[in-house]
Amino acid sequence: MTTDTAPLETRVPPGESPAECPYCERPLESEDLLALHKGLDHWEDLSDPERETFREVYADETESLRTFRLKILGILVVVYFGFLFVYSYYTTNPFSAALLAFAVPERVRALR
Amino acid sequence: MRTRTVRTLGFALAGTALLAGTLFAGTALAHGGSLRAASGSLSIPTWLFLLTGGGVVGASFLLASFVTDRAFIRAAHDWRRVASVSLDRLVGATRIASVIALVGVVAIGFGGPTDPLRNAAVLVVWVGWWAGYVATVYLLGNSWPAVNPWRAIAEWLPSLDREYPERFGVWPSVVGLLALVWLEVVSPLADEPGLLASVVAGYSVATLAGAFVYGPDAWFTRVDPVSRVFRYYGRVAPVHRTDSGFELRPPGAALTEPRLADGRDEVAFVVALLWVTTYDGFVGTPLWREFALGVVGLGVPSVVVYPAAMLVGFGLFLGAYRLAARYSRTTADTYLTPEAIGRRFAPSLLPIAAGYHLAHFLGYFISLSPALFAALADPVSPPLNPLLIVLPGWFGSLAVAFVLLGHLLAVWVAHATAYEVFPGRLQAVRSQYPFVVVMVLYTMTSLWIVAAPDATPPFV
Predict the structure, then answer these.
(1) Does the pTM exceed 0.80?
(2) Residue contact A91–B344, C-beta within 8 A
(3) Beta strand A27-28 with B239-241: parallel, antiparallel or unpaired?
């Protein structure tokens, strides 16, 4: 998020107490997100303790991203093998899926 | 009706190929026909073909979400090389040339040969301009402001400089774009040079009148659909004009900037650009043929079928996009309004439109370019049987690859934009869930159109 960004419109649902950015008044959804936002968009204006908070929150976030990546990897594996099985059922060469996108082969065209 | 012309061209190509003793091995391919020929011959069921396309886009989203290094994403998108050059003199020359070309198109359209394959006006407009030139705009850069003959004339003429009514926004260009594509689909614009010349002349009169009243700047940036299409396509390209010269950026990098779509009307224009390419293909499918015949059989007048489908489809596309923006607010757990999210992510749809255009028109351009050059060399009496290039069989799969590449770039642009907008990295990835669903559905729709056998659209 760059500083030349036009102010993003926000709408806070009634009854919620957002963490508001003291520099640009953007309401953030949690204190952690506020710390990240301040570090990313207002780095120059921050005090040392605030920068320290940013680093900590960013490191925590990296930690939770690691778990997230593992889940993504799991889904990718399932998708890959799912397609492999389906293709092995419908074609003689299950790897023709890759050929489909990049080089629809003569083998396939000849069936016309 | 271009699809019909193209079919004619396809037969012509096949005939030429036979006569010429088949210079190259392969089938005659042109326009969407190339894609259909490729995918229609797959040995897998259609649903699996569609699912695979959707799967590629979905998987690329998953892969993109592995890239969580903010510094890397920002560096990739901020990379640029700048060159300061002034091209003012050159622009003067290109403008004079393009005005001469415009006059030539109208003159040859009215007075040249009636065979579309020999008429320089038809070939320049469809092959040279709409297929070839448009591709340079999203592959290289938007040179239209330097070429636009109407803008050149409008700037030479005086103007009333009336205040453009702000409340209209860019809605007139949305209506204009839908109307132009509708006209292209229902009339034999690529078959009858005289009709094409009349439409070009009519468009010139309307454009110059508008620019005269509201001033060229307001007209060409807010109202003229053609200039706006080029402006948006040009944002996909690597080369951009700046105040002092040119800058080179990775393709699509400029799309993450917030200034491109700044209102509901701009979002509607981007979605319209995407929709018209789909519409153009959709009316050539058997499903549409059966539907149109059935509806007219029930007593609906045939003239309303095409515009109605145009509007309903546009409504569906826009509705799906807005719905995605609304859900994105929930999945990302953000206070941003759905409108703000919709505006910010709309430019990521542009590479899809560009990829689809390239898939449609690259083969068309290559196979007809000898005819174009022959007609340009001698517009008054071009050779009787212009040479046409017969594309090899694998060309159709290249088209499928372009459709997918457009979607992959779109997924990446959306990913980078989300990182710009949201402070949380997980939040950024979550904001993309609804958009990815829409993109996957869109890929599957495009591939379905591409895979459907060719049918003649009825009532046109």
Answers:
(1) yes
(2) no
(3) unpaired
